[in-house]
């Protein structure tokens, strides 16, 4: 295997391995993090190496929901509840089909993933459970990776398939009913098998893919698959078409997350070990034309726009590495300056804005099963800041 081109899952596995090796210090680490952010005003640190930080941001950060094991993507539903995808703990089922090579493989599957919802007051309840989950040879788990709504209908993105130890369930988009039952509407595993990308990483290949993020754009769903490097469109009827093959244009960049504001804005993780400042935001037109739009980030696992049309970037390990407690959220303002919104995060894995204008973050999505959902509330002055240019597709950022 090429030493400088290790896949997405291996990066995450090594993150987990690092955390396990430091498990004796987890309590101190978590307490230190709580002391840094819970209910306090964050004063961002200026980082002249890669960011032009525009002053400070007055924002209070609190724990919205504690003790959430392996939280990933999250979205608000029309009922005002926050829905969260949980990766689960894997299982013990083995399969004999082709899997990713060691040390990552083999996977063992089970039915321990779930979807939860959190009320505005922070009460947690289960929406659907016993969903496919898998754990690989080094302890990294995956399962439900994201959730999304089209109207009142809930959809979820599954990582599964025979190559992940779940032969009965493909990597797929599923529709979840109100009673918690669900059905596959789009078989991503079969699509990935039948429609290979132009430049897959041969020694670094997940046959069933590792789909990570899911968004709704005008009634259709769009998903990013990091390992193969592509974005696909999924209709409500289950038709799958490719929007862009990132591997054909940019190589093995490991795209992970997507937001839409007239065009798609896609963040990438890159390969392990993370090099500070090596990740980017790519602008992708609806017909699949792409270019680098903003640079200087590290390990991107989330992107989102606020009501002022500013883009927020979630870095799972801004210090490179992977390194615990270096995750952060950076905002690109409409005048091209950047603000660090919150830092010292512990391998965050997703974020979304709520109807209240607050930013919600899945924190400790990888590592010990002590994750949490954080809530970032901005003061009135910050919401009005840099409000002179509201163009979501800012030409002055284009590169």
Describe the structure.
The chain has 399 residues and is mainly beta. The chain has a single domain (8-397), classed as TolB, C-terminal domain (Neuraminidase, 6 Propeller). Helix content is 11%, strand content 39%. The chain is built from five helices and 26 strands. The protein has a five-stranded antiparallel sheet with strand order 1-2-26-25-24. The protein is globular and about 55 Å long. 52% of the residues are buried. The model is unreliable at 1-55 and 388-399 (pLDDT under 50).
Element layout with pairings:
Elements: H1 8-21, H2 26-37, E1 40-41, E2 59-65, E3 71-76, E4 82-86, E5 108-118, E6 124-135, E7 141-142, E8 144-150, E9 153-158, E10 172-176, E11 182-187, H3 188-194, E12 213-217, E13 220-225, E14 230-234, E15 240-245, H4 246-250, E16 255-260, E17 264-268, E18 279-284, E19 290-297, E20 300-305, E21 311-315, E22 327-332, E23 338-345, E24 350-353, E25 359-363, E26 372-378, H5 380-384
Antiparallel strand pairs: 1-2, 2-26, 3-4, 4-5, 5-6, 6-7, 8-9, 9-10, 10-11, 12-13, 13-14, 14-15, 16-17, 17-18, 18-19, 20-21, 21-22, 22-23, 24-25, 25-26
């Amino acid at each position: 295997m090429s030493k400088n081109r290790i896949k997405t899952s291996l990066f995450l596995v090594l993150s987990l391995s690092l955390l396990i090796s430091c498990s004796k210090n987890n309590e101190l680490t978590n307490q230190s993090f709580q002391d840094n952010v819970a209910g306090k005003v964050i004063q961002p640190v200026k980082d002249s190496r890669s960011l032009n930080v525009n002053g400070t941001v007055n924002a209070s950060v609190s724990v919205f929901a504690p003790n959430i094991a392996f939280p990933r993507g999250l979205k608000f539903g029309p009922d005002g509840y926050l829905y969260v995808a949980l990766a689960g703990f894997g299982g013990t089922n083995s399969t004999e089909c082709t899997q990713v090579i060691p040390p990552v493989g083999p996977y063992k599957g089970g039915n321990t993933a779930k979807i939860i919802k959190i009320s505005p007051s922070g009460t947690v309840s289960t929406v659907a459970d016993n969903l496919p989950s898998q754990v690989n040879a080094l302890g990294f788990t995956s399962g439900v990776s994201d959730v999304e709504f089209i109207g009142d209908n809930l959809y979820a993105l599954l990582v599964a398939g025979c190559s992940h130890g779940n032969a009965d369930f493909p990597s797929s988009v599923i529709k979840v009913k109100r009673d918690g039952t669900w059905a596959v509407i789009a078989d991503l595993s079969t699509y990935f098998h039948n429609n290979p990308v132009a430049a897959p990483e041969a020694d670094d290949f997940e046959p069933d893919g590792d789909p990570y993020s899911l968004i709704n754009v005008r009634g259709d769903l769009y998903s990013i698959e990091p390992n193969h490097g592509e974005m696909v469109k999924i209709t409500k009827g289950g038709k799958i078409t490719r929007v862009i093959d990132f591997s054909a244009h940019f190589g093995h960049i490991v795209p992970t997350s997507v937001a839409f504001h007239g065009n798609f804005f896609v963040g990438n993780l890159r390969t392990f070990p993370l090099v500070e400042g090596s990740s980017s935001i790519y602008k992708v037109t609806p017909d699949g034309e792409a270019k680098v739009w903003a640079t200087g980030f590290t390990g991107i696992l989330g992107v989102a726009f606020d009501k002022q049309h500013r883009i927020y970037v979630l870095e799972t390990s801004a210090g490179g590495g992977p390194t615990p407690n270096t995750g952060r959220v950076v905002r690109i303002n409409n005048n091209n300056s950047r603000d660090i919104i919150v830092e010292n995060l512990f391998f965050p894995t997703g974020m979304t804005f709520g109807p209240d204008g607050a930013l919600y973050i899945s924190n400790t999505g990888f590592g010990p099963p002590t994750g949490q959902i954080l809530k970032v509330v901005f003061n009135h002055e910050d919401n009005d800041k840099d409000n002179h240019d509201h163009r979501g597709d800012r030409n002055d950022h284009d590169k």
